[in-house]
Structure formats: C-alpha cells, structure tokens
Design a protein that fits this description.
Blueprint (H helix, E strand, L loop, with lengths): L1 H10 L1 H21 L12 E7 L5 H16 L5 E9 L2 E8 L5 H15 L11 E2 L8 E9 L4 H16 L5 E7 L4 E7 L1 H7 L3 H9 L3 E10 L2 E9 L4 H5 L2 E5 L2 E4 H4 E7 L4 E3 L8 E7 L5 H18 L4 E8 L1 H29 L3 H24 L6 H4 L4 H4 L1 H16 L5 H26 L1 H4 L3 H26 L1 H9 L10 H18 L2 H21 L12 E7 L6 H18 L3 E9 L12 E8 L11 H12 L6 E5 L1 H11 L14 H14 L26 H6 L4 H12 L2 E8 L2 E8 L8 H5 L7
Parallel strand pairs: 7-21
Antiparallel strand pairs: 1-3, 1-4, 2-3, 5-14, 5-15, 6-14, 7-12, 8-9, 10-11, 13-17, 16-18, 16-19, 17-18, 20-21
Membrane topology: Multi-pass membrane protein
Family: Belongs to the resistance-nodulation-cell division (RND) (TC 2.A.6) family.
GO cellular component, one term: plasma membrane
C-alpha cells in the first residue's frame, strides 16, 4: 500500500499536488475559525445553582435551601462532586460532572431535578436559577459606567436597562454581570403609630398593594366585523398610584396608603460594592463569554458594540473599560507566533546548511507550514482552541524527519544513477525508504498516545498539546509520502546538481577520526555515559517541581479577608483607601478597582468581609527602569499591613478564578477538613495553620472564617402568641417585612420594572431595644 502511494504521487504528481493544495486551503479556513484564547480552559464541566433566599441567615440557608438542593443533585448520573456555599440570603451549589459530559445535557439534568424539589423550599425563597454557561476564562471584559451629575442609583439603572441588554446580543456573550451602585426600588415606609391608630396590621398593607396591581385578559368581542381584544388594566404606574390605594375602611371612611405610610424612591439591600482609584463607589459591568467562545473575536465585537452604545447613552454618561483579556491574548499569540516562526526558520537554515541540494532543502522546508495547516484541521475537528499549551509544544525537528530522509535518499540515488530515467529513480528511491519513514513516524506518534489518555486536570491541559503535535506529525508523514515525491518528480526531472558543502566536508573527517578513536575505548565511553546518567538522576531528585509555570497576566489581584462581623460600608471604605494609596504612590499601576462582597448575579459568592482588589498594571515598557512585578507586589504589601486583622493573598485574576472554580477555594493549595463538629474542625484548622509558616515555599496563608458573624435571634414565645390569639406567622410577618423589608409587588416604568417594598422606618428598627418595642397587630 505504501509503495502504491509513492507510485501514485510520482506518476500523478499534479493530482497529488492538487490534493495538497486542497488540504492547505482547508487548513487556512480552519485556522481563521479556530478559537484563540490565552490559556487552555481547565474549568471542569460544572453547573452552578444560585438561589436567592430573601433575608434568611446563613444557618437557615444551609439547612432549608443548600442541603436539599445538594442532596438532590447527588443522585444525578455522571456527577463527580457537589459542594455548596451558604451566605446571608444566598445559596450557591456547584454540581461538577465527569469529564466529557456535555454541558447542555448536564444543565438539563440539573434543571429537571430542581423542578422536583422546588416545592420543598420554604416560602420567600426564589426559584433556583442556573448560573451562566461560562468558565474561569469567561470574565473577558470589564468596564465602569461614568456619568457627571448622575447618582449611583441612576447609573445602575442605565447599566441594567440600557447597556446590559445591548451587550447581551453580542455573539459569544452569555451574561452581563452588574456590580456596584444601588438598584432602584419603591419603598413604602409604614409608620407603626399610624397603623395602631387605625387598627391596621402591616400584612393588611402588603395585601392591599398586591391586590391593587394587576393586569387581566377578557378574551375578545366582535363588533362591526372587527375583533376587539379585551384587556383589564389595573397596574400601578407611579408612586401616586401607591399612595391612593385603600387599605381599609374605618368607620365608613377609607384609609389610604398615604395616611399610614410614605412612598419614596429607595434602594435594594445590597451585599457588595465597587470603588476605583480611591475616588469612591462606581457602577461596573462584567461581560461573561460563552463556554468555548473565541476570546479575541468576542472582545473585538464588544469593543465595536460599546462604541455604538456610548453614542446612544444620555449626555455625560460613558462606558470606560478598565480590564480585558485582549492584551493577554495578544501577548500569548505573539509568543506562539514568534516561537513557531523562529523555530521554523531555524530548521530551514539548518536544512540549507546541511543538505547539499538547495532545491531539496526547500522542498523539506515547505513541509513545515503545510504540516501546521494540517494540524489546524485536526484542531478544528477535535474542537480545540489555539493557545499557549496547544501550539507551544510543536517540534519542527520531528515534523521534517520523514521528509529529510525521503529527499536525502532521492538526491543520493539521482546522483548515483545519472543516466537512468529520473521518474523511475525517484519512485524507486522513495519506495526504498517509505517503510522506515512510516514506522519511524508511527513510533513518534505512539509517544503521545499515553498523554491522550490523561483525565482530569492533566487531560484538559496536556491532551490538546498531544493532539496538536500528533496531527502535525501525521500530516508531515502524509506530505513525506505524497508531496515530497511529487515535488521531486517535478523539480528533479532533469537531475540534481549537488553543490560542495564546506561544513559537511569539514565535519566529516573529524567525526570519522573521533569515531574510530572511541570505538577502541568503548568501555570508557559507556562508563562515562553511565556516570552522567546516574548524576542526572541524583540531580533530578533535588529539583523543585510545579504543575505549570505561572503565566504573567499583566494584572495583580489581592484577596482581602476581614472579620465576618465587619459591615459592608466599612469594608468598602477600607478598600477604597487602599486603592487611592496604591494609585497615588505606585506609578506602574494603571487603575485599582476593589470589589467587595458579591454582585447581583452572585456567581462569585463573597461575603461583605471579602474584597478582591484588581490592580491593573501599565505596559512594562512604561515602568521605571529595573522595576519588576515582584517589586510592585513588595511595594503594595506595606499598605495592606496597616489594616488590623486583615488576611490577604496575592494572585492574578484568571488564576484566582481557576482555583475557585476547580476546587472551590481561592488559593494555590488548600487543606480541606471534613466532619460534623464545627468546633473540632476549627481547632484542627488552627493546628494545621500553625505548621504552615515553617514549610518551605509558604508565602502567606489564612484560615477560612466559619464563625464570628453576630446574630440577633428573635425567639417567638408560643404561649404568649396563643394568649393573644396570634399565629407564629403573624409575628414572622412583622420580622420579615417590618424589620427586614419585603417586596410585595412590582411597578413598571415602560419596559423597566422596580420592586415595591414595605417596611418600617429605619429609626424604629436600628437598635435592639427598638426592635423589642415594635407592635404586632392583634386579630
């Protein structure tokens, strides 16, 4: 079969070359369609289930929401791991599936299982939602919404209702995550004294608002050969409509909302905030790329879309980018291109120097780009992306091995048989070495088979590299069997003229002399080789190891952890001060954006005591002479040490997300301790942490806080409740709505919707003794 391929290539050389051209065209179109990212995406197949649990405490969220969902997910097929985080008003359950599971099939299974347990969740808990179809590389673009003379609430409204919907239509974007500012709502501030005077309970107010805000449909009627659709409209259109709602008739006189409450524009309770450069809070947006998307194309499309959006925003409002992955992708792509081009040129130079026939050397050199085009076809078919790992291991020496042997033998035979038919000589010479070439390349391919069987993190990282290299080597084999004989039949149809090779002529006698010399001393040579090998084994045991070298992303991320009892405002104030100091005193920094707590999407479930400080650096060419990234970290650290009780860790944005999504912990290395006794777990954790400073390589560490959050627990006296003829829910309504505030309906302003929230005034619920005096309406 192999000889038949050679015969076809020589006799039908133009047909063979046409096939090569078709392959090259296919490789080019595969290249321009390849997703291009900075790094291989190591995020496992996982589905995030986010449940907003109203005003429930972390303890109740864990017991009533996270545990039922987590238990239900354990029964799904192909589930590798289920873990959860429970915080104030939020449950985040991560369901990780076995490698190779289709992400959409996994989401479908999770969604179906959620429907079966939805009724088990307590009232006041929203329906569980699936997180965006994104990965650790998904947060590719982040921006700030600036606006002169606009409040944070107004800027947030512009972000949510004008900017985000337009960005979602960009191809490859799966979600726009808004973070920072205040979400607008309409507050109905009920006065307890007025309620007592009219004998009205807060539940009556809630029911009145809910019952006076609706739309109905009455089918249609036919009149004068026309069809009229009947619509009953009773929606609230303005705060005035809320004020005019009747709550109750007292002595035949209506009591309106305006008689017992004030209706005003307010803001939702939030669990996060963003600042920038020490200038106070800002509104930001995070563009999340769809899993498997082409990062370079998505960023380019986002830039174009934002340019159009800026032109349509209200006067004085502007979107300003502060972070994207385009620079990292560009630098990575440049590194790959430089390595491939320089490596290819180096091999070509060596070929021209070592092969005596220039035309033959050029034939072999042409195999390099053609093999790469064939590799791009393989990458496209296997669904691989072009990145540092998949393309960084291409070895052009292996790629040209078969072609070098083929051309060298053809040139040698043509030089030897000068009077014979050139086509027959080329065919005979190629057939003479086709079997060694085939099996030699096959052996090289077999080296990568074990790598292709890797699973887990190792498989995600190294399997694309093995597939890409194997595709390039296999392509080079096909080219050695088809392209090289066909081109040789065309170029060498009049024979070959081997030029004098001065380098080979100079090396050859010296090599022969050394060979004869050391063949007579073979035991000495073998002994020396054995000693060198043994020494290398000894040195290998002393070398440090790491899974992957750290890639410089061009940005620094500082993780800050404070005491759990700290308030959001205090965390934001401290983080803003740090941002101002860093921006002011370190000229290598472009901008500093601290993100405290969690966003509305809650895909990054941080508490108010946690802050991620994004330190975006200027290009290295703009740094002071001699300054390195390590120097910048050292300059930042003293400012972190000024805050008492602050634990911190230096990392990078993508590295942090990879750590968090793969293990649930924002750290390079984590020790997880399992058990039922929380006090014992904390004790063991403290004992382990005491050992960490003495371990070589430890930079910094902290023990995750599992306690320290203060609670005010209102325990209902059931006997007292029964004495007054009340139910427990009557008291719970006062706790939930009066103290915490409860959304009872929605007010629509065009396409925009805002919650209507009922609560008591801040001044009657801001102290413990005041909470004790809040009245409960008797039936």
């Amino acid at each position: 079969m192999l000889k038949n391929i050679i015969t076809f290539s020589v006799q039908q050389k133009f047909v063979a070359l046409s096939l090569v051209v078709l392959m090259a065209v296919g490789g080019y179109f595969s290249l321009i369609r390849l997703p291009i990212n900075s790094l291989p995406d190591v995020t496992p197949v996982q589905v995030l289930v986010i449940t907003k649990a109203g005003r429930f405490s972390p303890f109740d969220v864990e017991k009533l929401v996270s545990y039922p969902i987590e238990t239900a997910m354990n029964g799904l097929p192909d589930v590798a791991q289920v873990r959860s985080i429970s915080q104030f008003g939020l449950s985040a359950v991560t369901v990780e599936f076995d490698e190779g599971t289709d992400i959409y099939f996994a989401r479908q299974m999770v969604s179906q299982r959620l429907q079966s347990i939805a009724e088990e969740l307590p009232p006041g808990v929203s329906s569980p939602q699936l997180g965006p179809i994104s990965t650790a590389l998904g947060e590719i673009y982040q921006y700030v919404v600036h606006g002169e003379n606009y409040s944070l609430t107004e800027l947030r409204e512009i972000q949510d209702w004008l900017i985000a919907p337009q960005l979602k239509v960009v191809r490859g974007v799966t979600e726009i995550n808004s973070f920072g500012g205040f979400v607008k709502q309409y507050d109905v501030i009920v006065q307890p004294g007025r309620l007592r005077m009219f004998g009205i309970g807060i539940s009556d107010v809630m029911d009145a608002i809910a019952n006076n805000n609706s739309v109905s449909g009455g089918n249609f009627i036919e009149h004068n050969d026309e069809q009229y659709i009947i619509r009953g409209f009773g929606q609230i259109n303005s705060p005035k409509d809320i004020e005019n709602i009747i709550v109750k008739n007292v002595e035949n006189k209506p009591v309106f909302i305006r008689d017992i409450a004030a209706v005003e524009i307010g803001t939702q309770i939030r669990q996060g905030g963003v600042t920038q450069d020490g200038n106070g809070e800002v509104v930001t947006g995070i563009v999340m790329m769809l899993r498997g998307g082409n990062g370079r194309e998505v960023i380019s499309d986002i830039e174009d879309k934002i340019e159009n959006i800026n032109a349509s925003l209200p006067e004085g409002v502007e979107i300003e980018k502060f972070y994207d992955q385009s620079d990292l992708i560009s630098r990575t792509t440049k590194t790959i291109s430089t390595n491939l081009i320089e490596g290819g040129l180096l091999v070509i130079v060596i070929l021209l120097l070592m092969l005596g026939e220039i035309s033959g050397a050029l034939i072999v050199a042409a195999v390099i780009p053609l093999s790469m085009l064939f590799a791009f076809i393989g990458m496209r078919e296997f669904g691989l992306a072009a990145n540092l790992m998949s393309l960084g291991a291409i070895d052009f020496g292996m790629v040209v091995d078969g072609s070098v042997v083929m051309v060298e033998n053809i040139v040698h035979r043509l030089q030897k048989d000068k009077n014979a038919d050139k086509a027959e000589v080329i065919k005979s010479a190629a057939q003479q070495v086709v079997r060694p070439i085939f099996f030699g390349v096959l052996i090289i391919l077999m080296v990568y088979v074990p790598i292709m069987t890797f699973s887990g993190m190792e498989g995600i990282l190294f399997r694309p590299m093995a597939i890409t290299v194997a595709a390039a080597v296999f392509g080079s084999l096909l080219l050695a069997l088809i392209f090289v004989p066909a081109m040789s039949a065309i170029i060498f149809r009049k024979g070959v003229k081997v030029r004098k090779n001065r380098l080979i002529n100079w090396l050859k006698p010296r090599y022969m002399s050394s060979l004869e010399k050391y063949l007579d001393r073979r035991w000495m040579v073998v002994s020396i080789a054995g000693v060198i090998f043994a020494a290398s084994l000894f040195l290998m045991t002393r070398l440090g190891t790491e899974f992957l070298p750290e890639l410089d992303e061009g940005s620094i991320l500082i993780e800050q952890v404070r005491m759990p009892s700290v308030t959001l405002d205090q965390s934001i104030e401290n983080a803003d001060w740090l941002a101002g100091q860093l921006k002011k005193n370190i000229p290598e920094i472009e901008t500093v954006v601290p993100k405290t707590g969690r966003s509305d999407l809650a895909n990054d479930w941080m508490g108010v005591h946690q802050t991620d400080v994004w330190v975006v650096l200027k290009p290295p060419k703009e740094w002071r002479k001699g300054i390195t990234r390590e120097d910048i970290v050292a300059m930042i650290e003293p400012y972190l040490q000024t805050e008492p009780g602050l634990a911190y860790n230096f990392t990078q944005p993508i590295a942090m997300r990879v750590d968090e999504l793969t293990s649930g912990v924002k750290s390079d290395l984590a020790v997880k301790i399992y058990g039922e006794d929380l006090e014992m777990l904390n004790k063991i954790g403290d004992n382990i942490s005491a050992l960490l400073p003495s371990l070589p390589g430890t930079d910094n560490y902290y023990v995750e806080q599992t306690a320290g959050q203060p609670y005010v627990t209102i325990e209902i006296d059931r006997e007292a409740v029964a004495t007054f003829g009340l139910n427990v829910n009557d008291v719970q309504t006062v706790v939930e709505a009066g103290i915490g505030g409860k959304e009872v309906s929605i007010l629509y302003e065009g396409q925009r919707s805002f919650g209507i929230v009922v609560s008591y005034p801040e001044n009657v619920r801001d102290e413990l003794y005041k909470i004790q005096d809040i009245p409960v309406h008797l039936p």
